[in-house]
Write the structure tokens for this entry.
Amino acid sequence: MGIAQRHGRAGEALAAAYFELLRLGGGGPESQARRGRVDLVVADGATRVLVEVKLRGRSDFGGAALAVDRPKCER
């Protein structure tokens, strides 16, 4: 596993810990959906949210929101 993958996994673990602190349940990391991998599934009561985690070490490449393009949102 390369450094980018290790950083990505660390970002996902940090996000999962954050949601745990907020007492939002989860389906665990790396759930498999019909159209691809989902970083986290978070539950707030009956509502389920698919979470895409982006970790950026530098801001000059754009924020994390810019890394999620329209096709990814539509999936």
